[in-house]
Amino acid sequence: MHYDAQPFELGAAGRRAQLRVQGLSAGYGAFLVLRDLGLEVRTGLTVILGPNGAGKTTLLRALNGLIPRTGEVLLDGEPLSERTHEVVKSGVALVAEGRQLFPQMTVLENLELGGWLVPKAERTRRLEQVMSDFPKLRERARQAAGTMSGGEQQMVAVARAMMSAPRLLMLDEPSLGLAPRMVDELLGIARRIADAGTTVLMVEQNVKKALAVADRGYVMERGALVASGAAPLLARSSVIREAYLGASS
Ligand SMILES: Nc1ncnc2c1ncn2[C@@H]1O[C@H](COP(=O)(O)OP(=O)(O)OP(=O)(O)O)[C@@H](O)[C@H]1O
Asked: Which residue's CA is minimally distant from atom 1 of ligand 1?
C-alpha cells in the first residue's frame, strides 16, 4: 500500500518501549473475556487481529486500567499501574474506538487537552510539532472537531494522543468506518509514528492493510491469542488466509 513517506518527527525518539504481558485475565464482572493471556509488544508496530467480540478492545481496556485485571504487565521491565491516570503518566496513550473528541471544541482545543500532563512550555513545543506532522490539522485548527469527516476526526484523535509524547501508543480500530483512502492514510500515520520511535499497538479489523504496515501481529479468538508472528509470515499463514483473507488471496 502507499502512504505519504515524508519524514515524521513525532514520537519519543530514544524511548523505544516494550510491553510484556503474562497471565493476563480480565472481563466484566463475573464474565471473564481474557484468560491467561501472554504477549510481547516490541518496538515498531504490532497489530492485534480477530473477529468481532474476540476481546481485542477488552485487552486495550485492561492494559490501560479501564477495567480490572489480574496478571503481570511490564512496561520496559517496570510494572504498569492499574490506574488510568498513572498509565498515562508513565507514557502510554490510548486512542479508543469512537475517538472521544469534544465535538463542540476546535481542533486546537482538542489537541491542547491531549497535552494536559505536559508542562506549558513543552505543550507549546509539542503542539507545534503535532501541527507540522499533521499539516491538515493546522489548516483546520479553528474548526469545530465535530464538523470534520470521520477520517479527519480520527486524525485529530491520534494527534491528540501524540500531544502527550507517549512511548507506547495504542490504537483501537483506527480505520473503522473510513473510506479506503482514509484507511490508507491512518494506517500510514500509525506506521510513521512507529518509525519515529513510539511503539504502537494497534487493534484492526482490516486484516490485509494492517498486516501490510505492521511489523508483527497476533490473532485473537474468543479471548485467547491463537497465532502470532512477523506480519509478512502471518499474512501468508493458513489461519489468516482461511479465516480472514479467503483461501485464494
Ligand atoms: N461493558 C461490557 N460489559 C459486559 N460485556 C462486555 C462489555 N464490553 C464488551 N463485552 C463483551 O466482551 C467480549 C469481548 O468484547 P470486545 O469488545 O473486547 O471484543 P472486540 O474483539 O474488541 O470486538 P469488536 O471488534 O466488535 O470491538 C464480547 O463478548 C462482548 O460482548
From this structure: 28
Span from the CA of 55 to the centroid of ligand 1 (angstroms): 6
Q: Given ligand 1 and candidates 56, 94, 171, 172, which is best to mutate, with the most ligand atoms within 8 Å of its CB?
A: 56
Q: What is the ipTM of this complex?
A: 0.94
Q: 129-143, pLDDT tens digit by residue? A: 899 888 899 999 999
Give me the residue spans of the domains in the chain: 12-91+167-249, 97-165
**Which residues make Cβ contacts (< 8 Å) with residue 200, sequence separation at least 6?**
44, 45, 46, 168, 169, 170, 171, 190, 193, 194
- pLDDT tens digits for range 95-129: 998 778 999 999 999 999 988 888 888 889 999 98
| Chain mean position to CA 107 | 20
Domain 12-91+167-249 of CATH type 3.40.50.2000: no
End-to-end distance of the chain based on CA atoms, in angstroms? 16
CB 209 within 8 Å of CB 175 = yes
Strands 31-41 and 92-95: unpaired
In the chain, the amino acid numbered 77 is G
* CA 72 to ligand 1 centroid distance, Å: 22
